[in-house]
Amino acid sequence: MSLAASTAASELPPPALSPAERRVVLAAAFLCWLGAGVQMGLVQLSSRPALVAMFQRADGATEGDAYAADEKRVGDGFARQLAALQFGAAVGGVLFGRRADRRGRSHAMGLSVLCYSLCAGAAFFAQSPTQLLFTRFLTGLGIGGAWPTAVALAGEAWPNAAKPKVAGVIGVAANLGILLVAHIASEFAITTSTWRVAVLFGAGPALLGILVFALLPESPSWLATRTSKSAAAKSAAPVRELFRPALLRNTLIGIALATVPLLGAWGSSKWMFPWADKVAHNQAETQAVWAYGAVIASALGGWIADLCGRRITYFTVSLASLVINLCVYQFLQPGDPLFLPAVFFVGLSGTLFFGWLPLYLPELFPTAVRATGIGLTYNSGRIATAFGILGAGLLMQTFDGKYELVGTTTSCVYALGMIVILFAPAAGKK
């Protein structure tokens, strides 16, 4: 073969994935994000029992002693645990997204799964709230990396017509993981004496990470950018590209659009779980009911956005989430007959966003910087969310440990979403 022919052959685009390979990629991305949901569910359910156990020991009380936890102290500690997870996810989203644009989607996705699995299991050895906080941050690194790598890889593996369905599959995965943990916790309660065993369950997806890293096909779209010098140059410094004039507006809008549902879920809705644990001792059941609504919503979010339009869907969901959260915190209490049905609708409304985001965010960025763009926008929202959660922890002090007042205040973030979406670029089907 002549040099010219060899060069031309090397510049041919890589072959598209076969139907079987596309299904394998989608299944791997689904399991990757489902595993991340398992970690999130475990953090939510294990943090309060772990903190109470640690405070009990620090106060010199033995396990058999009657111990009344200081709810303001526990609530503030709970907020710190969630915030550490969010800070870690924000950093991990950028780090693993950048690696996905430079080294490949499947490579980075496998590493992210290994990261969140091994670090979640390491929480077993934590002896203090600070040590537990550190493991939450490291687990968050992998969770943050799982999102952009799974979304980019699955989205690029399938044709445009299938993207709303792909977005629904990815969107539903994490909530199925949360639901799985809730059901297990309903059968095997996570208490001050069993929380260490529970967190070991989070190490299970490590095998998936090894298989993804070693065997999963790479994205043809990403491989095609390797033959383009301009695209290769962009992917060598993807973060810088996102803040150049051509993409700056999309980047800032993407950050804002991701922040609202993240802060709404973690800074507002998630307070229903420790509230239910305090009042009715049915935290796992409350999380399970929320997760059922979330699973349905995340499966439908991409389809609804494609049918009704990206912007009108986001605006309507923001309005619905605001109204439903306020109604729960203002007019209901855990143990009321209508509390759990209302929690179902909180999960339903607030999680439609997470079927919408994997459809909309990839449309804002070109292939060469797509994984970094998705990771930076979605997970930068986690930084604001982490500060919001810490602020909610301070509100626990201000409101004397009253979860309903904290939730009422933080629910107002959904009003911001109704404003931000008015400035969003029109992407995809209008």
Could you walk me through the main structural features you see in this protein, from its secondary elements to its overall organization?
- The protein has 20 helices and no strands.
- It has a single domain (19-62, 69-219, 234-423), classed as Up-down Bundle (Growth Hormone, Chain: A).
- The model is unreliable at 1-12 (pLDDT under 50).
- It has helices at residues 3-10, 19-58, 71-103, 105-122, 129-157, 163-187, 195-200, 206-215, 220-225, 229-236, 238-242, 245-267, 272-279, 283-308, 310-331, 339-351, 353-360, 370-398, 403-410, 413-420.
- The chain is mostly helical and 430 residues long.
What's this model, at a glance?
With 430 residues, the chain is mostly helical.
How many helix segments?
20
Shape: globular
Return the domain count: 1
Indicate the CATH class: Mainly Alpha
Mean pLDDT across the residues is 84
SSE pattern: HHHHHHHHHHHHHHHHHHHH
The CATH architecture = Up-down Bundle
> Termini, distance in Å?
49 Å
Full CATH superfamily name: MFS general substrate transporter like domains
Quote the CATH topology. Growth Hormone, Chain: A
Q: Biggest β-sheet, characterized?
A: none
Helix content estimate: over 70%
> What structural class should be given to the helix and strand makeup?
mainly alpha
Q: How many beta-strand runs?
A: 0
- CA gyration radius, whole angstroms: 22 Å
**How much β-strand is present in the residues?**
under 5%
Task: Record keyword descriptors for this entry.
430 residues, Growth Hormone, Chain: A, disordered N terminus
